[in-house]
Amino acid sequence: MNRFPLYNWLESKFSLRGKFIVAIGAIISVSYMMFLYRTSIVDNELIIMQAKQQARMLYNQILITRQWVSEHNGLFVIRTDSVDSNPFLALPSIWDEDGNEYVMRNPAMVTRELSEYSNRKGLGSFRVTSLKPINPGNIPDKYEKQCMVNFENGLTESIEIETSSEGRVVRYLAPLNVKDSCLGCHARHGYSAGDIRGALSITIPIAWADKKMAENNRSLFFIGSISFILVSITLLIMFNTLVVNRINKLSSAINAFPEKNPTPLTLPAGDDEIGSLSAQFAELCERLTQSQKELDTTRRQAWLGEKMASMGILSAGIAHEVNNPLGGMLNCVKSMRENPEDIEMQERYLPLLDKGLKRIEHTMRQLLNFGRQEPLQYRKIVVEELLSECLDLLSYKLKGITIEQHTSLNKKYYVDAEALKQVFINLGLNGIQAMPNGGTLSIFAEQIGKNLQFRFKDTGIGITENDMSHIFDPFFTTKDVGVGTGLGLSVTFSLVGQMNGAIEVESIAGIGTEFLFSIPAQQEHITEKITQNA
What we know:
By secondary structure, the protein is of the alpha+beta class. Helix content is 54%, strand content 18%.
């Protein structure tokens, strides 16, 4: 199954705890960044919305102010150094009886001067502009000119966000319509009631709001970072306590099995998934332990059964070896009974009787030793002598078969003598039975490195390619009924494995077969662990 590159990277670089923290951290970070981004957008929209509303309110207030001034035919204020007359008015100033000069303030001038006050207070600025300005100071800029053209086409207002040297500003433009009260001044300019005289341009600074929004975003980012750290630490502690430590405890119990069976103290407890897994593992261990006991019992029975079967096969040849000296001994006894006074005959026959009895005793002792059931245990023996003893047993089955023995293991090694003897007999019998018309069985035994290596090579009928994969299966045999049980090679494979060894086979049909197995060459005291496993 194809996976994302990020997933593969996480899987190869991090432990389960690291993957969990990275994944949760990524989710929290992305979620919080999206929240911060969305908050910034909403704040910006609210700021702009508020600035637009403020511009509309200011527009209406200025209109009311202008209307009031217009309806009162302008305002007259005492002329001072800072208050000058308007040269664009028909009646720029008047004098009273005391000689005081009053200058007129029409709606346009009131608007301009109020704008100057507002601008100084940082509340924004506003001014009157027109496509046909009388005062050069009312000449529109590019944005104002385009808006007033659009007003002529029916547009009622225009709002735009611009960036100045002092930050962002909201620009608001709305038309100024000529009213009846305005005709006193503007009728002579060719305007009539309802005409668009110009526009009121309002500029609202929002740099202060941007600054506050930036400060708020920094605060949110700081709070988010602290929250992320606290959440990560909390998750790490909880994950270590609830998951990692309990999994490590379960892992230790798994590694200790089967030397140590799991107990409630060595397994993580709880009613969650890990607790359930621990209970299932404990139950599995019980089943495996019981199955192992049953398997060991079955294996011992199979080993004993194969040993008994091998004994039955050997008995036919051994009976012949026993009957031959026994027949001669009976003849000697019969002759001695018939001639009890023949001292010369007794002296000649008694050594023959002794030799025959010793031969029978030797044969029966070998057979009994091979058939005795003993627990597996390692002891120090000369492997070469053990091999020779087994070959003596096999000699009764030789008919036209030559055994060539090449050994160099005259030292003592710690081995499982009974298991190794069973392997020698099984492989020897297998080679002999594979050569019904005679042949050569070559046996090689030597130490190579830290292992004892044994090779049994025959010149028999060989093993076919189809049978090669089944030769170590229990009860699989190609021999006739009564000749083989099908357990010999299976038991051999099991015994070599118990001795921490390995076995291989090579065969060519019609040419012969070679079995090669090796076991550790232990010349020092074997450990208790190996003895128990044996």
